[in-house]
Specification:
mainly alpha
């Protein structure tokens, strides 16, 4: 038997008969199928055969392009009876738009307190805010005011309206003195800080001093407004501007009262927004300022009617408290934010 028979290429029928009559349809050597209607054409599938129709059978789960009527998940949500209801996420509101510069200026014209906030609060991008330190500063200010009131009532009893006016004037003079001392101390401490920094940081710090200098000028300008409205030397100017000018001067004076009083408090808390230069400057400048004020009280003989022990405790209590708070603020800046005087100077 030839090796090209059933064990070689092809099958036995092909090698014996030499024709591909018995080859299955689809074989590469099968003869072409006769056309439909030819006597030798193969019979089609009988009627009722499962493949007699081109499409799927009726009732087949995929008879339609869409989902069947009884499909268990007709919607995108979970099926009925699912133990966990779908989560409905509320839409995230868009970020609030920042007011324009013109709107801020207009708001500051009729609200002096808002203008003081814009002028005396630090607002440098990326500045470190420590709410714990700010809270302690408010407590220290409140306790200092209560101590001053208690000391005044105990050793300098107020018995008349003139006494109340005298005490209030004394406290106002002390506040103005603090601001004036701070105005004089500010360029010395800031100038030494900028001069000690390296060249690259020096230019950055000089550029950042514009806003603190602006706050200093704002305080000085509010002080000048009171003189414009009440100084006897400027009575000729008030007469020259006439009634409309006097009304404008009085309105500016009233606006400046709220601006100056609130601005003095913010200036003392934020130390003329020197944090806009660097975060380590406010505690350093506050410590220098409070010891200068203590020395000024000793030189001018403040609270001379108070016994020596109470006067020493009161005069030294403020600088010691502020110094401790300043050291703790510097410690928190180093521990929580990695900000130190050496890194601020680039050393």
């Amino acid at each position: 038997m030839s090796g090209y028979g059933s064990g070689g290429y092809g099958d036995g029928a092909a090698s014996g008969g030499g024709s591909g009559a018995h080859l299955p349809q689809g074989h590469p050597y099968a003869p072409p199928a006769p056309p439909r209607g030819h006597p030798n054409s193969p019979p089609g599938p009988p009627q009722g055969h499962p493949y007699a129709q081109a499409g799927p059978l009726p009732g087949h789960p995929y008879t339609q392009a869409g989902l069947p009527p009884a499909y268990p998940y007709p919607r995108s949500g979970p099926p009925p009876g699912y133990p966990y209801p779908p989560l409905h996420h509320s839409p995230v509101p868009p970020p609030r738009a920042e007011p324009s510069r013109a709107r801020n200026i207009l708001r500051g014209l009729y609200n002096p307190l808002y203008a003081a906030q814009r002028a005396f609060r630090p607002s440098r991008p990326g500045i470190v805010h420590d709410p714990e330190v700010r809270r302690l500063q408010l407590w220290r200010t409140g306790l200092g005011l209560l101590a001053w009131v208690g000391l005044t009532v105990t050793y300098n009893a107020v018995a008349s309206a003139d006494g109340v006016q005298g005490v209030a004037g004394e406290r106002l003079d002390q506040s103005w003195s603090s601001v004036l001392v701070l105005v004089c101390t500010f360029p010395v401490v800031v100038g030494a800080f900028v001069a000690a920094a390296r060249d690259g940081l020096r230019r950055v710090y000089l550029r950042r001093t514009l806003r603190p200098l602006g706050s200093v000028l704002a305080v000085m300008g509010s002080m000048g407004t009171s003189a414009l409205a009440m100084a006897p030397e400027l009575a000729g100017f008030r007469d020259a501007v006439g009634l409309p000018g006097r009304i404008a001067v009085i309105g500016l004076f009233l606006w400046s009262i709220g601006f100056a009083l609130y601005g003095i408090g913010l200036s003392l808390v934020h130390v003329f927004r020197t944090a806009d230069i660097h975060e380590v400057l406010p505690p350093i400048l506050a410590g220098v300022l409070v010891w200068e004020m203590a020395l000024l009280d000793v030189v001018t003989g403040s609270y001379d009617q108070v016994p020596t022990g109470a006067r020493v405790a009161f005069v030294l209590g403020a600088p010691l408290t502020v110094t401790a708070l300043s050291c703790w603020e510097l410690y928190r800046l180093r521990r929580d934010h990695g900000l130190t005087l050496r890194t601020a100077l680039g050393r």
